Amino acid sequence: MKKIYILLTMVFSLCSTSAQIITFNGCHGLFNDQNFIFNNTATDGNGKKIYITTPVDGDQSCGGLGTCEFKIQWNNALTRWEFLADSGNGDFINPYLIYYNSTGNNSAANPPNTSTGSWVENVLVTENACGGNLTPSNSVMTGDLHTSTLAVNDFSKGQIQMFPNPVLDYITIKGIDNAKNIVIINMEGQEILKTDFKDRLDVTQLQKGVYFLRINDTYGKSYSLKFIKK
């Protein structure tokens, strides 16, 4: 786990001093209380920005745990933002997944902040060393981040409708073209349900609570709506 800790240390210090920079400070059970700076280095084929810590040459301090490099990027296959740690050589061929967020505004080109959706700790790698999901109370993440999950009125200039909300049994969805499938995610970032798109969705089996309904279309775009299950 020493190598993993080294990688993890770089992953969580996102602070920004310009529109293309993210700065992180957190996970103090694993990393020292210091800032890690991520620069927007490229844009992927899905129009999502890629952020990498600098330097990426083995000279980045990891709070006494060695040297490592970190990356924040979009995973289009799993439709989520990922916080990755490299093994120390900067090639990110087999990086470690530290956090992921699939419940922000996934149509945005930049990742969400810690108040938007859920940045879920990957405890299989961290062994709970970071103390759970990222929140504004246990970390600071600032800079080139988006700050809101799409609501009904944000979709297609108000054409998309989801009702009722709160819901007891069935959700009705109107106003979206080329929809492919629907995913329901809980507040812990766990996928509860995935099904082909239908404009009337049965949610009677869900427990009471707050959920995100994500609609993926045939163009690779996704839209997130928050709803309450009664």
Q: Based on helices, strands and strand pairing, what is the structural class?
A: mainly beta
Q: Rough shape?
A: globular
Total helical segments: 2
CA radius of gyration is 18 Å
Strand content: 35-45%
Number of strands: 15
The overall pLDDT average reads 78
Q: What oligomeric arrangement do these chains adopt?
A: single chain
Q: What are the secondary-structure elements, in order, as H or E? A: HEEEEEEEHEEEEEEEE
Protein name: Por secretion system C-terminal sorting domain-containing protein
InterPro entries: Secre_tail (IPR026444)
Pfam families: Por_Secre_tail (PF18962)
Keywords: Signal
Tell me about this structure.
The structure is a single chain. The chain has 230 residues and is mainly beta. Helices cover 6% and strands 37% of the residues. It contains two helices and 15 strands. The chain has helices spanning 2-11, 123-126; strands at residues 21-26, 38-43, 49-53, 70-75, 80-85, 96-101, 120-121, 139-143, 161-163, 170-174, 179-186, 191-196, 200-202, 209-217, 222-229. The chain has an eight-stranded antiparallel β-sheet. Strands 12-11-14-15 form a four-stranded antiparallel β-sheet, with no helix packed on it. A three-stranded antiparallel β-sheet has the order 9-10-13, with no helix packed on it. It is globular and about 50 Å long. The termini are far apart.
